[in-house]
Design brief:
There is one protein chain. By secondary structure, this protein is α/β, with parallel strands linked by helices. Helices cover about 45% and strands about 15% of the residues. It has a 5-stranded parallel sheet, with helices on both faces. It has a 5-stranded parallel sheet with strand order 9-8-10-11-12, with helices on both faces. Helix 6 links the parallel strand 5 and strand 6. The two termini are about 30 Å apart. It binds 6-O-phosphono-alpha-D-glucopyranose (G6P). 6-O-phosphono-alpha-D-glucopyranose binds next to helix 4.
Length: about 375
């Protein structure tokens, strides 16, 4: 096992470091000569043009990819998107648009609820597409079309590189669908592709800074509650950051849409409660910053995740971690990295079994 960890203490850290390669491989599986080619997925231009509704269905972190993808698909393609937990979708007799596309996202391709949701969609005669990591898995075999993520085997229960490659798959699909449907011009299309191709190096750059995050995270080992807040895509990132934190550190954590704070969560803040604000979307920056100020005035200890340049956050937050600039639509791929590291280092500081957290399984094949 030590050999398989390639010098890292845990599989999770190894897999965190494999993200630049996993993302690069997945990008290059569909980007050729500066254009996206979905022929391997089996999605034709006619099919892309006829889609009138997208349903994204998944569990766990894959569901969080769906929450981010909803923003991106809707922004770029203007096709309405619903994101649903597979365990809910399968039992609610969903009304599905016959020209809709059901997209199932799953690392293992074996999650019981996601597989059942896929079967439910097929029973209703709607087109299905799976974003899957494991070749030949049940979901990959049964879906009409498959977009394979090239994350390679993921051992750690808490997903990192599979999540990152799932995001890439949704970006590539959204950008290509937007272009084919003439919602973006060639300049924007090429610009988005070139921004995507820069993501692996930017992820690498964030990983260079991991000691700073370790220093901060190690001090949070005694926290009882952690709140993650953000708006828009920053909310989607918060959901994943919170899940990473709770599953491996056993600290209660919640992700809240920043604007909802006043509707309940703010009453839980006490002197020293850690609030992690994700503020990468320029148009929403001031709004969430003012929520952070509100948290601070109630005693919260603040950590901010934002893009380079937003240095005024240091006036408010006690600790700030910066990510490189990218197109705002792709920022999830960068902002999630410090949050993965944060969860990891808190877990290590508490001496927990990072790779095999209690009560959790890598693949949930029973309900
Ligand atoms: C488990 C794993 C998660 C994963 C979820 C969905 O809970 O621990 O990391 O996101 O299942 O799994 P899937 O294989 O369908 O992506």
């Amino acid at each position: 096992e030590a050999a398989e960890k390639a010098g890292y203490e845990h599989f999770m850290m190894k897999e965190i470091h494999e993200q630049p390669k996993a993302v690069r491989d997945t990008l290059h599986s569909v980007i050729k000569d500066d254009a996206i080619d979905l022929s391997g997925v089996g999605l034709t231009e006619e099919e892309i043009k006829s889609v009138s509704q997208i349903y994204i269905v998944a569990c766990g972190s894959a569901y969080h990819v769906g929450v981010a993808a909803q923003y991106i698909f809707e922004e770029l393609t203007r096709i309405p998107v619903r994101v649903e937990l597979a365990s809910e979708f399968r039992y609610r007799n969903p009304i599905l648009d016959p020209n809709g596309l059901v997209m199932i996202i799953s690392q293992s391709g074996e999650t019981a609820d996601s597989l059942a949701a896929l079967r439910e969609a097929k029973k209703k005669g709607i087109q299905t597409l799976a974003i899957v990591n494991v070749v030949g898995s049940s979901i990959a075999r049964e879906a009409d079309k498959v977009f394979y993520t090239l994350a390679g085997p993921e051992i750690s229960v808490a997903t990192t590189k599979a999540y990152s490659t799932q995001l890439i798959a949704t970006y590539c699909m959204a950008v290509q669908m937007a272009y084919v449907r003439e919602m973006i011009n060639i300049e924007r299309y090429q610009n988005l592709i070139s921004e995507m191709l820069k993501l692996p190096d930017k992820i690498e750059k964030i990983l260079y800074d991991k000691e700073r995050i370790q220093w901060f995270a190690a001090k949070q080992a005694n926290a009882h509650d952690i709140f993650f807040i953000g708006r828009g895509l920053d909310y989607a990132i918060s959901l994943e950051g919170s899940l990473k934190m709770k599953e491996i550190s056993y600290i209660h954590s919640e992700a809240y849409a920043a604007g909802e704070l006043k509707h309940g969560t703010i009453s839980l803040l006490e002197e020293g409660t850690l609030v992690i604000g994700v503020l990468t979307q320029n148009d929403l920056y001031e709004k969430t910053l003012s929520n952070m100020v509100e948290c601070k005035s109630r005693g919260a200890y603040l950590c901010g995740v934002t893009s380079y340049g937003n240095y005024n956050m240091e006036d408010t937050a006690d600790f700030v971690t910066y990510i490189p600039k990218t197109d705002p639509l792709f920022v999830t791929s960068l902002a999630v990295i410090p949050l993965q590291l944060m969860g990891y280092y808190v877990s290590v500081a508490k001496g927990l079994d990072v790779d095999k957290p209690r009560n959790l399984a890598k693949s949930v094949t029973v309900e």
